[in-house]
Amino acid sequence: MLFENVLDVLAPAVLDVRHVGMRYESREVMRDIHFALTAGDFVSIVGPSGCGKTTLLRAMAGLTEPTSGSVRFKDREIREPQSEVAIVFQDYNRALLPWRTVRGNIALALEARRIARSEHPARIADLLRRVGLTRHADHYPAQLSGGLQQRVQIARALAQEPQVLLMDEPFGALDAITRQRLQDELLEIWSATSTTMVFITHDLEEAIYLGNRIIVLEANPGRVAADIRVDLARPRHQLTTREDSRFLAIRHQLFGLLSAE
Amino acid sequence: MNARAAKAGRAAVFPLLLLGGWDGLARAHALPDSLSRPTTIVAALVSTVADGSLWAMAGQTLIAAAAGWALGSLLAIGAGIAIGTTPVVRSIVGPALELMRSVPPVALIPVALLALGLGPKLEILMVAFAVFWPVVLFTAAGVRSIDARLLEVARALRFGAAQRILHFVLPAAAATIAVGLRVAAGLALVVAVTTEIIANPSGLGYGIAFASTALRPDLMFADLFVLALLGFGVNALLVAAQRRLFAWARR
Amino acid sequence: MRRWYGLMFIAALVALAELVCARGLIWSAIFPAPHATLAALVSGLAAGDLWAPIAATLAHMLAGWISACALGVVLGALVGMTAFGRDYIAPTLEFLRPLPAAAIAPIGLLLIGRNDAMIVAVIVFGAVWPVLLASVHGFASIEPRLKEVSRTLQLTPVRALWAIWIPSALPEIIAGARISIALALIMAVVAEILASTGGLGDWLNLAERSYRTPELYAGVLLVGLLGVLTNLALERVEAYLLRWKPPAATF
Questions:
Q1: B102 neighbourhood in chain C, CB within 8 Å
Q2: What mean pLDDT comes out for the span C2-6?
Q3: Residues 94..153 of A with a Cβ closer than 8 Å to C: which?
Q4: Which residues 40-79 of chain A have a CB within 8 Å of chain C?
Q5: A138 and A202 together in one domain
Q6: Chains contacting B (3 or more CB pairs within 8 Å)
């Protein structure tokens, strides 16, 4: 207890997942998941299918309420979505408004925050530049590739100016090259802001490459199996980082944890 | 079974409230007398059922609608097969059909009245004309969507044109044609009733029009209720038949 | 070359009709020669007799159609967006939908009288169903993910309605509205025939009663033209409003 308080003083928790459990009727999906996120952290969450990764993320976003325990943002309990917590869904083709252009989709988040229309163009231009979509501002989602559509969703989430950005396997449906490019762009965006990132993935290498910390979940019911620090130098590099012996060591460790069952 | 009963119960709440409100307001003389009252309407309904006039009217409407539907559909299936299988026919008659289709059938009722006079012929031909269009469109579309490979097989097996149509084209397009026939059946009832209201003095349509001019709102609403029931019944019957016959073609 | 076949066929039909009439093979009191119809149309337009009925029908149909769309979309949203509406209201709508809409015209006549209000009311009742049912379905079938997006962005209900619900239901609403406008024209003609207070329906009715067949056919032609033109106009509107849609797969 004392130890937790000391940590709070050193690096205050932004998001606090407290003994979260979830059941659907008689099925237990998650049991006693407990961890805290410190400001500016980049946390990857990995786990086998059925470990409740997505359910956990939805609870953190306030989209579902846990059956037991709670999720707290700073000093308040999350029961409904919070403006400081943004989420990027995996299925970009469903999460974007097909009837709005790229610009319009980003503007939706600004409209939600009631930002004056006169400020929209400058803010949108800045967001477009950060995610590399300037050339596509007036295209409709259906005219864009998957990678570009996912960038739109990220830009919309950033337009919320969130303190925490939750991402649910955002690159899972993309091809390998696009995926690596987006990983590096995401790291750049992260280092330019102080946003806390939570990144769900089933790709172990992606989890290590991106994160400062990896939370490993095991399934049936979902619970925390390990909480691993990743001390790899930043900025990371697609070749050298992945060849680093510490990278490989963590990869071994994760592989062991996830194939143990 | 319980869930179904609950569903039916929920469905009945709104109409019952509506009828109750109507009756209450009418009793309090808050509505014009020409709106009648649900209880009076039920009495009128009972009397038309009892004296047999309802059955006669409903029979006339249904027979005219069914005859027109059969005639129009038969012609339309023939035309649809010709259009669907032969591109030349399609490009020759296509625009003319498109042009004629855009004329609302009701606008032709005065023309038909002039040419045919009053009577079942007028009503049947109006229904046949209206029904022709959806059936021809669905038939042509169904025939065109047949796998070309299937027709090649038929040709390779040296079937004649008539046999190719009977054994290959019709079965393959049957599910699509059935949709057209169902749409057409709903339309047939609508056109039959419309013709009866505007011109032909027979059937439920005329019953409603007559009750209206005779200032008998109770009778008018009773006929209208029967008509709604008929429309609903015909539609439900055809949907069920289509499900049963073409369960394999559901997409 | 193929594209000219259709026009040549239409020209041939007209020429044939002309020939048949000139030879006196058909009674011209029922089937006037095409040139007589054309002459009646031109003289009616030149003398100005036809403009008033055209304007009246167009006004009736647009007033009825616009009211039907407004009513249909609002009611459709209430029913489609809420479980209450789907459970309690939708079944009644399903029961009323197959009711032949023309049957409501005598009721309008009795309750409202022979005037424009009755004509518009009848059109609204007849034309509301496609747009109503389409918007019920449109609002009920919104992408669930977009509801979550709306929650995470904390959109106000009004903003969510404008930014997400309405655009999401719009393709179906427009499809329904296009069917509705065709029905609005049909119902306008039916109601005008019964009300005989002006409009193309009244024109057809009077022309038929006084055996002025060229005028009658000119009226039919104009009704068809009105249908074609309104359909084309709505096609344009649809293409503009749904420009964000990826082009449909053609096969």
A1: 224, 227-228, 231
A2: 77
A3: 94-95, 97-101, 108-109, 111-112, 140, 142-143
A4: 61-63
A5: no
A6: C
The answer to whether A83 contacts chain C (CB < 8 Å) is yes
Calculate what percentage of chain A has a pLDDT beyond 70.
95
User: For B60-77, how does the pLDDT look when each residue is reduced to its tens digit (9 = 90+)?
Assistant: 888 998 999 999 999 999
Range of the domain at B26: 1-31
> Which one, of B145, B127, B140, B142, lies nearest residue B184 by Cα?
B127
Statement: residue A142 has pLDDT above 60: yes
Give the number of domains in chain A: 2
B212 interface with C at CB cutoff 8 Å: yes
* Residue C10 touches partner B, C-beta closer than 8 Å: yes
Question: B 59-118 residues with CB below 8 A of C?
Answer: 88, 91-96, 99, 102-111, 113-115
The more confidently predicted of residues B160 and A47 is: A47
Integer-rounded Cα Rg, in Å, for chain A is: 18
CATH number given to C48-241: 1.10.3720.10
Return all residues near C32 (Cβ < 8 A) that are at least 6 apart.
C21, C40, C213, C214, C217
Q: Which residue out of A91, A97, A144, A158 would a mutagenesis test of the C interface target, given it has the greatest number of C Cβ atoms within 10 Å? A: A97
Predicted confidence (pLDDT) at residue C251 exceeds the cutoff of 70: no
Question: What is the distance between the alpha carbons of residues B221 and B23, in angstroms, rounded to a whole number?
Answer: 14
Nearest to C102 among B91, B92, B190 (CB): B190
pLDDT bucket at A128, cuts 50 / 70 / 90: very high
- Residues B155 and B207 grouped into a single domain: yes
Asked whether A146 and A173 are in contact (CB, 8 A), the reply is: yes
What is the domain-level CATH number for residue B148? Answer: 1.10.3720.10
Q: Report CB contact under 8 Å: B228, C95.
A: yes
Q: In this predicted model, what pLDDT tens digit does every residue of A201-258 receive, in sequence order? A: 989 999 999 999 999 998 888 888 889 998 888 889 888 898 899 999 999 999 988 8
User: Best residue in C152, C165, C245 to probe A by mutation, most A CBs within 10 Å?
Assistant: C152
Helices (H), chain A: 2-10, 53-61, 92-95, 102-112, 120-131, 146-159, 176-192, 204-210, 240-243, 245-259
pLDDT surpasses 60 at B178: yes
pTM of this structure: 0.84
Q: Does A35 touch chain C (CB under 8 A)?
A: no
pLDDT of residue B251: 43
Average pLDDT rounded to a whole number, residues B10-33: 80
Q: Which residues of C touch B88 (CB under 8 A)?
A: 5
Chains touching A (at least 3 CB pairs under 8 A) are C
Q: Is A182 a domain residue?
A: yes
- Do B and A make contact via 3 or more CB pairs under 8 A? The reply is no
pLDDT average, residue stretch C222-247: 88
Predicted local distance difference test score (pLDDT) of residue A10: 58
Q: Which residue has the higher pLDDT, C148 or A49?
A: C148
Number of structural domains in chain B:
2
Burial class of residue B149, CB neighbours in 10 A (0-12, 13-18, 19+): exposed
* Residue A159 pLDDT: 93
Judge whether A29 and A52 are in contact, CB under 8 Å. yes
**Mean pLDDT, rounded, for B4-33:** 81
The verdict on A41 and A110 lying in the same domain is no
The residue extents of the domains of chain C are 48-241
B208:C31 CB<8 A: no
**Given this model, what pLDDT does residue B41 score?**
81
Helix boundaries (H) for chain C: 2-22, 34-47, 51-81, 83-84, 90-96, 104-111, 116-140, 144-152, 157-160, 166-195, 200-209, 213-241
Name the minimum distance, in Å, from the CA of A149 to any CA of chain C: 14
Residue B151 CA to residue B157 CA, distance in Å, equals 10
Q: Are residues A77 and A109 in the same domain?
A: no
